[in-house]
Amino acid sequence: MSLSPAPACIELTHGSGGRVTAELITNVFHRHFDNAWLRQGNDYAIFTPPPGRLVISTDAHVITPLWFPGGDIGCLAVNGTINDVAMAGAQPLYLSAAFILEEGFLLTDLERIVISMAAAARAAGVPIVTGDTKVVERGHGDGCFITTTGIGVVPKGINISGDRAALGDAILINGSMGDHGVAVLAAREQLHFITPPQSDSAALHSLVAAMITAVPELHCLRDPTRGGLATTLNELAHQSGVGMQLTEAAIPIHAAVRGACELLGFDPLYLANEGKLVAICPAAAAETLLATMRAHSLGREAAIIGTVTGDAQHLVQMKTVFGGSRLVAWLTGDQLPRIC
Amino acid sequence: MTPFSNAATIRIRGLVQGVGFRPHVWHCARALHLIGTVQNDGDGVLIEVWSASASALDQFCAALQRDCPPLAQITAIERRRLNHPPPASLTDFHIIASAATAVHTGIIPDIATCAACRADLTDPANRRYRYAFTNCTHCGPRFSIITALPYDRVQTSMAAFPLCPTCAAEYADPADRRFHAQPNACPSCGPQLTLTHPDGSAVALLDGDVIATTRQLLRDGGIVAVQGIGGFHLACDAAHVAAVARLRLRKGRDAKPFALMAADLTTIRRYCAVSESEAQLLTSPAAPIVLLDRLPPCQITGDDLAAAVAPGQDSLGFMLPYSPLHWLLLTDQPRPLVMTSGNRSAEPQVTEHADAYQQLGGIADALLLHNRGIVNRVDDSVARVLLGKTHMLRRARGYAPAPLYLPDDCVTNTTVLALGAELKSTFCFVTGNRALLSPHLGDLDNPRTFAEYQRMIAAYQRLFALEPAVIAVDLHPDYRATQYGRDWAARAELPLIFVQHHHAHLAAVLAEHGWSRHGGKVLGWALDGLGYGADGTLWGAELLLCDYCHAERVAHLKAVALPGGDRAATQPWRNLLAQLDAAGVWSTAVARWSNVPIMQLLLAQPVDLLRQMIAQQINSPRSSSAGRLFDAVAAALLPEYAMQLNYDGQAAQALEMLARPQLAAAGDGYCFEITTDAMEQQVLEPAPIWAELFADLIAGVAPALIAARFHTGLARALVDSAQQQAARFGVTTLALAGGVLQNRSLLVQITQRAEAAGLRVLTAQQVPCHDGGIALGQAVVAGQRYVSGGKVGAGRAM
Ligand SMILES: [Fe+3]
Ligand SMILES: [Mg+2]
Ligand SMILES: [Zn+2]
Ligand SMILES: [Zn+2]
Questions:
Q1: Mean predicted confidence (pLDDT) in B753-774
Q2: pLDDT tens across A254-290, in order?
Q3: Where is the YrdC-like domain (chain B) (predicted)?
Q4: N or C: where does chain B have the smaller number of CB atoms within 10 Å of the terminal CB?
């Protein structure tokens, strides 16, 4: 038994694999994530998959700051991976989580993150069934990195993929663009806006389940995270070999985000979202899909924002609010000024 | 001696097709009693000629050159002896059919209606009286109607109009002005006008006369979409206040001045001062829009223009009628017409009927259409005369696709395609000794413009038989043009050569002045809005020591943050805040200058957040932009422009207008500090000017004088620096380029000071100083680097 008082922060011994590691796992991770698989105490989780095709996706989460209005790295790590699995039209079943902690990271902070993850996982109904922890020396990490992997199953008859957008299809989104990107930037840089933007972090699988039930012929789903809506649509256009025509006025953007973007000079279409999806479906099903999305709590602001066009160059175009049109570029990196 | 024992083949190169050159040859030959043939081929014009006397052949060659038709440009006459006798069947001089060979000949631009055709139009006895499609070998549409070479009627949009017997006879008669005039037409066989409502239904005509009805509509304050040579215009009576206001409202264009067309020089002179060289430019075959100084209102007699034509401008853009249709609309009209390009704001000019109905139907009250298709869109060119020289501000109709000729030692056998910049876009092919700069195309973030850009590249390839071997692009990774070129080079496995934005600006100036490849280095101030720098930072006022292949930055304006990136280019107040912040005088400004109007305006903005953005480098890249410095000063002196610009360059232009009358009184102007940085580059530091400028504002000095002091101080600092670097590097030539040099006061001041300091000054004249000229510079730099640079891998950067 250790004679020294329990350390208040992460030390290298927490990653040694010895008793201190075991204590951390038991007292923090198992305690909050608590489920049958973890209780077995194995280094893996074993289960019988339900019928259907399995989907697996993994995501590494690195974010500064760890806490921001509307969320934290914990809920992001859970929701982000659930969303990646859900974008295949799948029902997510299980998650794994790997933590890389920096020496000196406060245990209370870790616990806050783990509680948030546990709450997100419980709310989503997707247990975290296995995991791992490593500790890096002070200065070799940024507090806490979390990698999560999700496994899910695609119901029969569902065939969703980024290369399936077809001429005439409708393009929908489930709500406002840019909330997460602006919220994190404002928190990181301590920019004080009168109405602080809130991250939209949310798990979208129940929305997706409702959507594929209503419109099983759905063609594409994708979450417009890094790079925002503009990047996602360009990716989909290239993957499917099509063009897209958007209507700027139809794209919901919250006043707080619009205001912040106006000041900061950012285009909200390039900012990250963490609780949003793009759906592409046959035009005939668009209204049904829209109604289904709007009936769900995560799709109240859903909108049809454009259509899929034939375009050998796979350009994404947008009719602007001024009646003109512009190309929605696929940027090389950050938003760089171009006006000479 | 047998008759016709003197014989030669004569090869004529240059712009010699579609300009009446073969009839000219025919006339010369007949006058000298020569026998032989003349034909067009891919290299130009080929003559075989036999003469009884040797001197007649010499006279023939001399006459070919001396009496050359007005639109022709001979670049070479090559004469070789011919040793066989003429074929027995040949008893006279003949024009024979074109030979289909590889194309190395030019295509001439669209040319304003000539005096002879104007006489036909206005002569009631002439069969073309009031016929809107009258033209001849010396005038009329060319580039705008051509689909392929050789330039024959079947390869133009006139193919749909078979010639009537009378027109066919003119076409076949070498003695006729319309011999081989491909667009030849008359009322019985040629294109026709229709006047329709925006819903497509016909407008009830007065006496069955489309022109008279249109004139009446315009007189009544109507807006008419007029299908012209290279696209549509939106026309209305420029003196009709309500009509002009309606046009602004419907077109969604708040403040940018409208172009005007007047019946004649006399009408223009009622509104503007027109010098001899300006009159020449207005009446030239290209007939561009010419920017002219406005007369003071007190000197204008009647029919004053609606203020909304060009709000707050001290100059107006006028052109003369350049097609018969325009002549018919304007003859005897005392008032000018607004003739603005037919498009919605930010969209390219419309060329098709369907688009006209769709895009202009909501703007125009009627559409004046014709059925001669516009194959290649060509906007009106814009030019002005400065220091006695023509400066192109938009190079399009009447100029493109005529080539610019490269200096002899820059000629290579590599065809280069340069893709230009993002805004005011053009592209340029260099092949042999010719640089083929496309007409102005517009901003590539507009999908229609981007499509037009690609279509036009394909048209140039077809018309000039070009296949690029090297692709040149800007360094900016997010220019559409850069990405397009990158994709092209990768697909075709061609070398891709990146040319720095400001190097390209300056190289364009060198090329148009025929600067030799071995002419040594020059210094060049690129005074610009923004360009991606060779060091990955954003540049905008760089003194480069350069030739075609190399450029080294030797001085620049101090880099200052652009808070909000591109947002800073449309909101001048951001630049003022950034300048005051960078100069370290922000707290002084708040404490001591707060009763200056602009400070009150600034303090009502979220300045703390903006300063935080600058300090924490949030979307606030630093740039040595000259354009943004002008915006900052404009914001300080003209708060009405501080918040949001309606169009590119609006604030800087207003500042220049404010300064111009006071330049003579400005003395040495404000003092920029010139320092040297760690890289041995001179840095022009604007910090000290702000205290001076605000002290003047507080002391009640007129803003006009303050603006003049700024212009003068900047010009002085730029020339001082250039002079020091010239001495250091032993250079005697200073090139000037970049969009900021559309500022005539700055251009004149720099030029005069630099010349006084013994420097030879080269400015952008034939090619715009702004991004519309970039492609030419890119093409020449890439071509020279390619031939001197050695190994370049396929699709690899250089
Ligand atoms: Fe430029
Ligand atoms: Mg992933
Ligand atoms: Zn003529
Ligand atoms: Zn005819």
A1: 98
A2: 999 999 999 999 999 999 999 999 999 999 999 999 9
A3: 208-398
A4: N
Mutate: best of B478, B532, B560, B771, partner A, most A CBs <10 A: B478
Q: For the segment B182-191, what is each residue's pLDDT rounded down to a tens digit?
A: 999 999 999 9
A170-327 adopts what CATH topology? Phosphoribosyl-aminoimidazole Synthetase; Chain A, domain 2 (3.90.650)
Cα atoms in the Cβ-side hemisphere of radius 13 Å centred on A37:
18
**pLDDT confidence band for A3 (50 / 70 / 90):** low
Q: Which residues have CB less than 5 Å away from ligand 2 (the ion)?
A: A 59, 84
- DSSP structure class, residue A285: G
Q: Is residue B394 part of a domain?
A: yes
Q: B375 is in which domain, residue-wise?
A: 111-402
CB contact under 8 A, B529 and A322: no
Q: What is the mean pLDDT of chain B?
A: 94
Beta-carbon contacts of B388 under 8 Å, excluding residues fewer than 6 positions away, are: B277
**Assigned token pair, B747:** 């251009």
Look at residue B3 in the predicted model and tell me its pLDDT.
Answer: 72
Q: A337 and B613 in contact by Cβ < 8 A?
A: no
- Give the residue-averaged pLDDT of B166-179: 93
On the CB side of B82, how many CA atoms lie within 13 Å of its CA?
22
- Residue B103 — pLDDT band, cuts 50, 70, 90? low
pLDDT tens for B27-39 read 999 999 999 999 9
**Tokens in use for B591?**
């404490």
Q: Is B272 left (phi over 0), alpha (psi -120 to 50) or beta?
A: beta
Distance in Å, CA B35 to ligand 1 centroid: 55
Residue numbers of B between 226 and 285 with CB closer than 8 Å to A = 252
- Who contacts A253 (Cβ-Cβ below 8 Å, separation ≥6)? A176, A177, A178, A261, A268
> Across the interface, do A339 and B529 touch by the CB < 8 Å criterion?
yes
Residue of chain A minimizing CA distance to B627: A340
A80 CA distance to ligand 2 middle (Å): 8
Cis peptide before B401, with omega less than 30 degrees from 0? Answer: yes
Note whether B80 and B117 are same-domain residues. Answer: no
Are the Cβ atoms of B347 and A324 closer than 8 angstroms?
A: yes
Other C-beta atoms within 10 Å of B519: how many? 15
User: Residue B183 domain-assigned?
Assistant: yes
State whether B180 and B60 are in the same domain.
Answer: no
What tokens were used for A242?
A: 């099509």
**Residue ending a domain, choose from B61, B95, B129:** B95
Q: Do A326 and B569 touch (CB under 8 A)?
A: no
Task: Establish if B453 touches chain A: CB-CB under 8 angstroms.
Answer: no
Searching chain A, which residue's CA lies closest to the CA of residue B505? Answer: A340
What is d(CA B333, CA B313) in angstroms, rounded to the nearest whole number? 24
pLDDT recorded at residue A239: 98
pLDDT digits (tens, 9 = 90+) for B594-604: 999 999 999 99
- CATH code where residue B60 lies: 3.30.70.100
Whether residues B71 and B125 share a domain: the answer is: no
The answer to whether B566 contacts A338, with C-beta atoms less than 8 Å apart, is yes
**Which residue's entry shows tokens 């840089």?**
A189
What is the average pLDDT across A184-196? 94
The two three-digit tokens of residue B636, written as one number = 């300080």
pLDDT band at B104 (very low <50, low <70, confident <90, very high): low
Inform me whether the C-beta atom of residue A331 falls under 8 Å from chain B C-beta atoms: yes
If contacts are CB pairs under 8 Å, which of residues 355-414 in chain B contact chain A?
none
**Separation in Å, CA of A142 to nearest CA in chain B:** 19
Q: How many A×B Cβ pairs under 8 Å?
A: 106
Residue A124 main-chain phi, psi, to 5 deg: -85, -15
Catalytic center residues of B:
22, 40
Report which bound ligand comes closest to the CA of B134: 3
User: Cα of B210 to ligand 1 centre, how many Å?
Assistant: 45
Query: Taking CB atoms and an 8 Å limit, are B564 and A335 in contact across chains?
Result: no
Backbone angles phi, psi at A190, to 5 degrees: 55, 50
